């Protein structure tokens, strides 16, 4: 049986009706670098599972009454990270949902612990060339350099996620299918059970 045939077979057994009761109040938490598709894939995943989609960055901006760059400029990174941790902790109490997090949020040990307790983490992993291609339209050379610097430090922490799915130039629905199929293992769904 080919990998695609196996995945299609698993997808047939792993459905929203199967996933939702097993999630209980846990969130599906998307982690990864800027440009991996956490928001776009997250919206599709939430729609497929018929649960809310929440973007932590949007919630942080709403809570602060300013944009993330403004928070960094006015108060600095430590202030931002502290607020980010508080917002994510609050959001994790609202599951089940699909929660897209900022690229650096998972670097905080207490945030990782809360995600582990209250969620299933999904690392949308992308190669450097894919990240640079997706973020180049922002026309921000320092951003490209920052991605190059941050990726090696963050990847070992992202790799602690419950699920790893390669983000690549495929339709987002393909990535959603892979996430749903891989949810079977952390949710304890055996192949053949529905």
Description:
The structure is a single chain. This protein has ten helices and five strands, in the order ααβαβαααβαβααβα. Helices cover 60% and strands 11% of the residues. The protein has a five-stranded parallel β-sheet. The radius of gyration is 17 Å and the shape is globular.
Biggest sheet character: 5 strands, parallel
Count of individual helical segments: 10
Strands of the largest sheet, in order across it?
A: 2-3-1-4-5
How does the overall form come out from the CA principal axes?
globular
Roughly what is the average pLDDT, rounded to an integer?
Answer: 86
State the main characteristics.
194 residues, disordered N terminus, alpha/beta, 10 helices
In brief:
This protein has 194 residues and is α/β, with parallel strands linked by helices. It is 60% helix and 11% strand.
Write the layout of secondary structure elements.
Elements lengths: L2 H11 L2 H8 L3 E5 L6 H12 L3 E3 H9 L3 H8 L1 H16 L5 E3 L8 H10 E7 L2 H8 L5 H18 L4 E4 L5 H16 L7
Parallel strand pairs: 1-3, 1-4, 2-3, 4-5
């Amino acid at each position: 049986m080919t990998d695609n045939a196996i995945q299609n077979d698993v997808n047939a057994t792993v459905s929203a009706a199967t996933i939702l009761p097993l999630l209980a109040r846990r969130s599906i938490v998307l982690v990864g670098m800027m440009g991996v598709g956490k928001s776009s894939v997250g919206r599709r995943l939430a729609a497929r599972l018929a649960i809310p989609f929440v973007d932590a960055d949007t919630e942080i901006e709403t809570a602060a009454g300013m944009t993330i760059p403004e928070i960094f400029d006015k108060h600095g990174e430590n202030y931002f990270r502290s607020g980010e941790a508080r917002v994510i902790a609050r959001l994790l109490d609202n599951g089940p949902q699909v929660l897209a997090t900022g690229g650096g949020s998972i670097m905080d040990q207490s945030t990782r612990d809360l995600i582990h307790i209250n969620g299933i983490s999904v690392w949308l992993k992308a190669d450097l060339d894919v990240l640079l291609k997706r973020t180049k339209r922002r026309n921000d050379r320092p951003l490209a350099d920052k991605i190059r610097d941050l990726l090696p430090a963050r990847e070992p922490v992202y790799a602690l996620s419950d699920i790893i799915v390669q983000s690549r130039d495929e339709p987002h629905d393909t990535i959603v299918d892979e996430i749903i199929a891989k949810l079977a293992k952390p949710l304890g769904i055996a192949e053949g059970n529905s």
